[in-house]
Specification:
226 residues; alpha/beta; six-stranded parallel sheet; 43% helix; globular
Length: 226
Amino acid sequence: MSENLTGTRILVVGGGRGIGAELARRTGAEGAEVVVATRSGPGPRIDVTDETTIARAAESLGAFDHVISTASAHHDVPVAELEHDRIRAAFAAKVVGPLLLAKHFAPLMPAGGSFLYFSGIVGWRPKPGTVVKGTANAALAALVTHLAVELAPLRVNAIAPGITDSGAWDALPDERRRALYDGATAASLAGRIGTLDDVTDAALWLLGAGWVTGETVHVDGGGRHR
């Protein structure tokens, strides 16, 4: 992938940990100049739920060849326990935020540039307690198609990972995390959960795949088919 990323500038929003941090590391290793933006931290600040921070970042950071966002906000509760503000926050992070990133950064990007967003398997594999997350992730898949049409020749794609050992589940008690991983392994046609390499390999390919746009690439071991 070096020939695709050497000399490019890449913005990773939400790159402080997990998949975002690994993408920042790997794209940097492939020769890109990488800027990591988070809601709080030592680097540039972008809160995808706050348009002002996006607009200021676009003005101060300038043009990028690729913009990646892994931002999300969860509200995983039964329907009877849903809270209006937390529903709005989940959609703001997963759907409205990507729209606003496109609004402010697309005008600065070269014709060969791309946006890469992150959806998730729950958008295609409903289960109780995940109606907000599932709907937001499915909405993002629709969003990338519409943005790809409107922003062409800029490319817009998404990755929908399955359960991945990315650090996202580390806060769970050991027993719950093992049960989650065991269930995901049993549901996977590949017979295992995902790794950071699985997801970032797909992301690196998409950044250089100049004839792929408007697509959601499922990196889930076939888990959504069961």
